[in-house]
Amino acid sequence: DLTIYPNPTSGSVLISKAGTTKLGLYNAIGQLLFTQSIEEQDVIDLSLYLSGIYFVVEMETGIGHKIIIDR
After folding, report:
1. What is the C-alpha to C-alpha distance for residues 54 and 10, in angstroms, rounded to an integer?
2. What is the signed CA dihedral for 64, 8, 37, 30, rounded to 10 degrees?
3. pLDDT on residue 63
4. What is the pLDDT of residues 10-60, one digit of tens each?
5. What per-residue string of b and e applies to 13-50 under the rule 16 or more CB within 10 Å gives b?
6. Residues near 61 by Cβ (< 8 Å), separated by ≥ 6?
């Protein structure tokens, strides 16, 4: 199971998942903004993105998780 904290965020989030996985960040209209591989846990800096709703998608499974960026 993927854990994202804090959510909502104003900058960075800590993403945790057992094992290694590749994640994609999508905006609300489905555009892929970036991909990143994580192993166990990693911090992802979202400070470059505008306030709004985004989705972190596990690329292997297609499961999406909503992230809210709130400044």
Report:
1. 13
2. 50
3. 96
4. 999 999 999 999 999 999 999 999 999 999 999 999 999 999 999 999 999
5. bebebeeebebbbbeeeeeeeeeeebeeeeebebeebe
6. none
